[in-house]
Design a protein that fits this description.
Helix content: over 70%
Strand content: under 5%
Radius of gyration: 23 Å
Number of helices: 4
Number of strands: 0
Distance between the termini: 56 Å
Structural class: mainly alpha
Shape: elongated
Length: 76
């Protein structure tokens, strides 16, 4: 049973977290490069928010958005 958990430890520590260890060592030379994962997530979130707002504007322009407070049963 001990070998099973050591195998899981090896998988996570030496294989799956290796890119994160590289980013951690990169922080001493370039802060922006070390935070590339954060930058990628921020870009994805910003793009999703822009898409969401554009869809809201489309529904608002067509007049299909129901802004009545009784649109949902839990708001009654």
């Amino acid at each position: 049973m001990k070998a099973f958990f050591e195998g899981i430890e090896y998988l996570f520590v030496n294989i799956l977290f290796a890119p994160l260890d590289f980013l951690r060592s990169l922080e001493l030379s370039s802060w922006f490069a070390a935070n590339t994962i954060n930058w990628i997530f921020m870009i994805i979130c910003a793009a999703a928010m822009v898409y969401w707002i554009m869809q809201l504007r489309i529904f608002d322009a067509n007049g299909t958005e129901n802004q009545d407070t009784t649109a949902h049963s839990f708001l009654k």
